Amino acid sequence: MKTRDEWLALSQTLEFRNQAYINGEFRAAASGRVFPTQNPATETVLTEIAECDVSDVDLAVEAARTVFRAGTWAELDPGQRKRIMLKWADLMDAHRDEFALLDTLEMGKPISEMLSIDVPDAIDCIRWTAECIDKVYGEIAPTAAGTLAMIHHEPAGVVGAITPWNYPLMMVCWKIAPALAAGNSVVLKPSEKAMLSALRLAELASEAGLPDGVLNVVPGFGHTAGKALALHMDVNVLAFTGSTRVAGMLMGYAGESNMKRVWLEAGGKSPNIVFADADIEKAAAGAAAAIFSNQGEVCIACSRLYVENSIKDEFMAALLKASERYRAGDPLDPATTMGPVVDQTQLQTVERYIGSAIEEGGQVVLGGQPEYQPGKGFFVKPTIIDNTHNGMKVVQEEIFGPVLAVSGFDTEEEALALANDSRYGLGAALWTRDISRAHRVSRKIESGMVWVNTWGEGDSTVPFGGVKGSGNGRDKSLHALEKYVDIKNVFIRL
Ligand code: NAD
After folding, report:
1. CATH class of segment(s) 271-465
2. Which atom of ligand 1 is nearest the CA belonging to 230?
3. 4-266 in CATH: which number?
4. Distance 476 CA to ligand 1 centre (A)
5. Which of 6, 20, 416, 477 yields a CA-CA distance of 20 to 30 A from 227?
6. What is the pTM of this model?
7. Catalytic site positions
8. Contact indicator for 292, 402 with CB cutoff of 8 Å
9. C-beta of 223 in contact with ligand 1 (< 6 A)
10. Which residue has its alpha carbon closest to ligand 1 atom 42?
11. pLDDT tens digits, residue range 76-131?
């Protein structure tokens, strides 16, 4: 493992790709405009990036449509498509350190998390999805004798992907890998807060043999580039990860334009339930990881903790101890467990929610409001607020920072009612040694994902996504491929 100084030295040798990637080449935005992207740990500008708007999006969609119609990728032999994607994954593998650095520098995630989670997961996503290409079959329906009904899964056409900044590389791969594997062309609009890894990824895809125009990247702002993509009349499918607020807007844009299919992976306010029979030490370590990993900038962060009252004091002591391992520090230092939050707005959001929790009667038992020092990075403290209740903003609204709201419960029914009292339904964790209770509660929790005696674990083979205000789509697994195909049936009278 490299030292902090070695990472710093390596970061100074990086050449940032800072232009749009359209039809296989880097180019300036049509308007010539650029905007800065900064390092949240130092508040210095890393580079200025092409600020794409509607003209660039039009150009990218046109390139994507042209190559799709030509069939250069969509109709290429599945085995050949697979080989290109596998080569792409190998190239990513060869540039692991570079990818780790790009996201760490741009959004502040600890380099150790990039190396242990984001980069390997992103590579595995491309590899696993590539392997599916020549293993997914069409269907023949059991129709009457004298007829043949074939059900084809055809690529949908041009996929628009809009992604967030909290796992920049990983979220991009979760979208574009299945979209490309299914034979589509893609126009990607990464978050304006973290675009560097997406641009490099597109360049490596070309190096691996992906034909020009199949993957285009248009950096820019949501209300311009993102909106243009979402309203575009020639985009067939829109795949989004981001906030619930913007997710709702995209559904509106689809209705206003061409009724494109919209897949949404949105926000969360996941509950974590600790029953009295849980392994307290493991549950405490899990509860701390579930809110402080990636500075709490995690869609599945368990930001609501419900502890059975009979063990609450003992559990809180264990939780405070487990939380000691999370301290904000230089994300380039491999020992750092929490980086800065992504920008000043995010820091102020954290500050505001802690303030509102105190006003509403919460008791800060760890951390508290950030002590921001201008120019020294957007660092916040791991914060735990006890004595909260479901009527409080800090319990109902997504903060997207390292702030945990804690309250107690007495019965399983009460725990379930508290957990389900939310507009969100992304993930949920529960800790118990009682296998029947684990099954019972998992079934009744309103969420797309449940973790029992663990938190956040996943695999390329397992779908990821939510219900209620957390969205309607699933990334990863074979279910992700389904989002990007149209079903066509051909009925033949023999
Ligand atoms: P965001 O909604 O602000 O932005 C997400 C993307 O949407 C960005 O690329 C942004 O430019 C774009 N956008 C913004 N306004 C737009 C508009 N009017 N039209 C089109 N595009 C627009 O979210 P964020 O701050 O980047 O990310 C944090 C959010 O993402 C959190 O709510 C988090 O829970 C969620 N998230 C969800 C998952 C999941 O799998 N469910 C995973 C990661 C993050």
Report:
1. alpha beta
2. 20
3. 3.40.605.10
4. 18
5. 477
6. 0.98
7. 265
8. yes
9. yes
10. 299
11. 999 999 999 999 999 999 999 999 999 999 999 999 999 999 999 999 999 999 99
